[in-house]
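Re: duplicated header lines in exported C-alpha cells

Our pipeline writes sequence and C-alpha cells for each protein into one text file. With two proteins the header for the second block appears twice in some exports. Here is an export where it did not happen, for reference. First protein block:
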Amino acid sequence: MLTHPMPDPVAFSLGPLHVHWYGLMYVLAFAMFLALGRVRIKQPHIAARGWKKEDLDDMLFYGMLGVIIGGRLGEVLFYQPARFMADPAAIFKIWQGGMSFHGGFIGVLVAMALWARKAKRNLLDAYDFIAPLVPLGYAAGRMGNFINAELPGRVADASLPWAMLWPGVQGPRHPSPLYQMIVDGLVVFVLLWIYARKDRPRLAVGAMFTLLYGCARFFTEYFRVPDWQISVAGLPVTSGQMLSLPMIIGGAAILAWAYRQRVSETPSTAYTQPAHTE
C-alpha cells in the first residue's frame, strides 16, 4: 500500500506570486496542443485541406477561453452549486482546482463555433482537427488533480499494490485521478491519434473522440468517489456517468451518420475546400 506523496501544490514562488502545479499542468496542456497540432498540420490529408500554423495559434486562444470558462462553469453548475452559492468568490480561484471536463468540452465546442465563423472555416472540420489534440491535455489536468490530492477514489482493498492512503480520507483508496489520467487521457489519445492519421469522413474523428472518452470516463467513474449519484433500475449511476452517457450515445450516432454520409456522397457533394482568407 502506498501513501499519497502530498507534494506542495505551489511549484515555486516569485515574491508574493505563488505558481501552482495545477496551473502549470494547464500550461503544459496548451503547449502539447500546439506541439501536436503542428504535427497534425503536416499529415497529408490535413495539409490538403489548407490548415496553417496561424489557424492553430488562433484556435488555441479561443480554446483556452472555452476550457477555462466552460470548465469552471461546469464545475459550478454540475457538481458543486451549493458550495459556490455560499462563496461566489471561490469561482475565480481556479488554482485551487475544480474544473469540469464536461463543462470544458461544451466551452470548447462554443469557442470553436466562434472561431470557425471568424475564420470562415467549416465548423465540423474544426472539431475533427482539434479532437486528437485534447486527450493529452486532459491527462495533464488529472495529474494536477492528483498533485492537489483532489478526487479521492473509492475504498480499495489494502492488498492492492497501488492502493493509496489519501490526505484527509480514511482507509486505503484507489488513486482515481491517475486512473483517469491513464485511461481517459493516455489510452484515448493513442487510440484516437491512430484513427485520425488516415482521412476519415467529416465529423468522424470528433465523434470517435466523444465516444471513446464517454466510454472511458463511464468506466473510471467506478473507482472515484462521486460528487453525487442516483439509482437507475437499482444500479448506482454517478454524476460523471450521467454526463458521459450523452457522449456515448451521441458519439456513436454521429459516427454512424458520418460514415453513411460518405457512402451517399457523389462527386458533386464530396468535400471541397472552403474559401479561406488570410
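Second protein block, exported in the same file:
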Amino acid sequence: MDDGTNRLGWMLDDALRMPETRYAILLSADGLLMAHSERIGRDEAERQAAGMSGLQSLARSTAEFCGDAGTTWRQTVSEFDDGYVFLVAAGPGAYLAVSATQHVDMETVSFRLQELVQRLGKELTSPPRPGADTRA
C-alpha cells in the first residue's frame, strides 16, 4: 500500500496532535509497514510493524478467554513504565499502532484512534474498477 512515498503518513501525523503521543504506524496483518508518522524513521517503523503484527496475532488468539472464541478483536493496550502502546484494527488486514507517554489521556487516544480508523478505512478501500457496473 505504501509505495515508498508514505502517502498516508499525514493522517498519522494528524492523529499525533494529541498531547503526550509519540509515534504512529499503519501495518498489514503480516507485519509490513504501510505508513508511518513523521516522528519515527522508516527502519524503526518497519521493526515495530513486525512486532505489532505478532502482538495482534497473540491478542486475537486469546479471544476465547473473553468468553467466545469467535469474538472480534478490536484493540490492545500495552502499558510500560514510560507509557502505552495502543494497537487497533484499522480495516481488513490493517492495524494502527500509536505510542504515548505515561501521562496521556487514554480515553481521548482511544476515541481519536477510532476516528482515524474511520478515515483510514475510506483510504484503504479499493475504488471500483473503471467501467464496472456498480448497480446492485
